[in-house]
Task: structure prediction
Amino acid sequence: MSSRGRRISIRSLCEFTARRGDIDQCYTPAPTAAEGIEGHQRLQRKRPASYTAEYALEFELDSLLLRGRADGLDISKRLVEEIKTHRGDLERQSAGQRHLHWAQLRAYAAIICQQQQWESVNLRLTYLEVASDEVTELNETAQATTLINELQEQARIYRDWHQHLSTARIERDNALSNLNFPYAEFRKGQRDLAESVYKAAKTERQLLLEAPTGSGKTLGTLFPALRALANSNVDKLFYLTTRNTARRVGLEGIEQLREANEVPLRVVELCSKESGCIEPEKLCQGDSCPLAQGFFDRLPAARAEAFQLSKINLDVDGLRSVASKYKLCPYFFGQEMARWADIVVADINQYLAPTALLSAYLQQDEWRAIALVDESHNLVSRCRDLYSVELAQAQFRFDTNRVKLKKALDGVHRGWQEACKGLGAETVFNESPPEKLEYALQSLCSELSEVLAEQPDQLELQQMLFSASAYLKLAEVFGDHSVIRRSKPRHGNGEVAILNLDPSIFLTQRWADLVSVTLFSATLKPFDYYQQLLGLTSECASGSLPSPFLPDQLRVKLCSHIDTRYQVRDRSVAPIANLLIEQFQRQPGNYLFFASSFSYLQQIASAVEQRAPEISLHLQVSGMRQEERQAYVDSFTPSSQLLGMAVLGGLFSEGVDLKGDRLIGVTVATLGLPPFDDLHQLMRHRFNERFGLGYEYTYLYPGIQKVVQAAGRLIRTHEDRGELLLIDPRFARPEIRALLPSWWPPAEII
Result:
């Protein structure tokens, strides 16, 4: 066993061996990282000169190398201290959580007793309530032999488990060393794709890779990434996506590789709580949900069984199957099994969100992981959303007889008054969060924690707590990467938002924590735009693969005499309607038309319907449910003749495969530029200062990306043929044409 393989943090050791009882997801916000650090330091500064804070430990026990950091050691008093910060009444802490805290402290003390040759030691478990500054100290004295025996038993339990891990790792690496591609030949460009991913992984680099539709991206990235895992001291592969359908495609690709090679792979799919929870009406607590009750007592047996399943994917259904046998919550069971998987397939939120699970695991367990990120063209907007939050004054109206809660809500009301002071109907942008509101929300969170500890089924208060906590976490790290938006659409209805403009500051460390990452998509240019806004290093490699499609599969037409800009948009409605009718009547079949907004779309649809009522229109409407979205796509059949009408950048601009006669033409009547409003103008100014490309980064590149994605619905296979019509004179500009796919044939001007 290598030194890395036998190394484990004391916290992870205790979590594996000492957790007991129920899942207890109380609706109490934990202190932020900054609050926790500051709280620790505040207490440590009050300790005597003989006290050593953050005492680093490393200790070899049998075949394990244990590492950790005791919060405090006072050799003169033979005292070891563990400090925990919290919010709310400590009496409501679960027995399982308290047991885990004591286990960590006793493990630290056992090692120190060995190092200092003490026969006994004084233990102090200290809790600091960050809002009230109340300190609770729990003290006891323990014999060194007792502590050492406990630690040896914990080490034995983990060592036995780790032996299974080591054996599985050897089997995995041996199989991956001989991994073969599941098909006799690579597709055009697929071998180059695989070589690029393999080199990036082996040289531990970051890679931006544009791989056009049809190039076999899924297998072309998974195959080399898995080959790179073999004998490389890399623990895991993360396959991260921005869409549920892409997760399914990734799982199917893994299954193809496993079946073709009989390679043992432990694969876990992580999903959202909404998708994974099978008791959504119950709270995640033992006294509410039977699947949470005794979860950690039943977990070891379920974990052992699931770990043996190396021939199937533990996707959502697979996790539910094992979890149901042991009466466990499948959502939390999936989170546990992700610790022991070779491959984790998940949404990018699971790694890039502020409190992402996979990032926390990677830090705590010191994983060496490589990542593949599919559909990476969506990351800039997705990550902005992850680090943005909106609050409305109406969210904090609640009638209560509880004196303290009413006082806290009154304080928030005064905070809103201050935040909205001087506001009219217009929206205002500021450089810092409103302080009075921030302080009031902190007090409210503390009081809400108390109320929900007594009455956890208060759903309105739960949502209030979630919203306030999310705002406070982003307010704590506010900087010039974000902006404050304040508005008051009606009296007493103020709104405050933290809007992220540049997510790179939050992402840089996440990428750096990985051994290697490959971000790939069919549309990923200009590379500098993604490299800078996603926080990748300046040494990040980049490249494009040739399209597997031929120019004669696509006819491109450009209508340069119809201007779709907002100022003259009304004049474009009738000419566009006439073009669509002429195209449809010339060659009946299935078409998709994309406009920049629902209102513009409706105007053009009405004009088409008035002029050619015989054409079957198929309109996207706002707020379509999942079943409505699927029905929309399913309506396009090889024998149908529909003029589909959708919003550019919306539900049907990507992730839609309409092959053959299901789609023979796409029309885009806009450059897809974001609105020229105050927010985007502010973003333009910030990007101009930082990158010198304010217009391009704010408007042009995001807009053209949406155009290319929508056009990509047309040619999906080597058998597809179709016509792409671009409507707007700006498409004729050389700087715009340079951003369009190079494999497209020259456009015919009409």
